[in-house]
Each structure stands twice: as structure tokens, then as C-alpha cells.
Amino acid sequence: MSPMIIQKIRQVCNEKISKKGENVGLSFYAFFANKNDDPETLMQVATWWIQTHQLDHFEKAVKIKNMIEDEYGK
Asked: Is residue 23 classed exposed, middle or buried when 0-12, 13-18 and 19+ CB atoms within 10 A define those classes?
């Protein structure tokens, strides 16, 4: 995944956690606008989420943040 989307994932996870607590869940759609203006990046994240890690539709933001940091660094 591109550094830009990795940073966006971190940002969204941090925002969700700070607003709603460590039990907040999200889907990979949380990292994108409501319109499909970047299908290539959407598919990269979907592939990482669904095929690579076989995650459920909704996962804890803390889990996703930790996975991104483990895989791509802090």
C-alpha cells in the first residue's frame, strides 16, 4: 500500500479511538470518501483487508492500527 493510504489509515484509526474509545469498530470503507474517486487505492486496501488478512467486515480500530504499525512501521 502507498505511504499516503497508510498514513490515512493511522489517522482515521487514531481519530475513531480518541472519539469513541478503544472498542470502536470500523470497515475499510472508513478510509475513503463516499464516492469512488480512487478505485485503485480502494482495491489495495480491500485486498490487504480481505484477501491478505481475511478480516471481518468490521474490526476494532485498535487492531487495524496495530496491524498497520506491525507491517509498515510506526
From this structure: exposed
Encode the chain (74 residues) as per-residue pLDDT tens digits: 899 999 999 999 999 999 999 999 999 999 998 877 899 999 999 999 999 999 999 999 999 999 999 999 98
Q: What is the pTM of this model?
A: 0.91
Q: Which residue has the cell 463516499?
A: 34
Distance CA 34, CA 15 (A): 18
